[in-house]
Amino acid sequence: MKVQPLIHQCPVCTHALHVTKLECNQCATIIENKFSLSKFARLTKEQLHFIEVFLLSRGNIKEVEKALGISYPTVRTKLNDVIASLGYKEEPEEIDDKKSIITELETGEITVEQALERLKNKEEK
Fold first, then answer.
1. How far is CA 23 from CA 8, 27, 67, 103, 110, in A?
2. Which residue, of 16, 49, 70, 75, has the fewest CB within 10 Å?
3. Mind listing the pLDDT tens digit for each residue in 85-95?
C-alpha cells in the first residue's frame, strides 16, 4: 500500500484539517480521536527541503546559498517565510532593500511582477 503525504489544508475550502485516525500497519490496531499535528506539518515540501539544507549546513547561510544556488536575500526571505509559516511573528527588521530585490530579479529568483510589487510596498512604508 502506497502511503500518501500528509496534507494539512482542505483542498475544497482551504481550512485546516485535523487527524482523526491512526492505524498500525503491523497489527492493524486503529486509534480514533482528534490529534494535533506538529507546526512543521504546515510547511510546504519546498520549505521542508529548505529547512533540511539549512540544518545540514548548520545554519551557515553561505553554504545554503551554494547548495540551493540562490542569493543571500533569497535565503533570508525563505527563512522568514518558514518562520512565519510556523506561526511566529517577524521582527520589524528591514530585510530586503531595493538592491536585493533587483539582484533577485536579475538572477531569475523572482518575476518582474513580484519585484514591482515589493518595490511598491517599500515606497509605501
1. 18, 9, 37, 49, 42
2. 16
3. 888 876 544 55
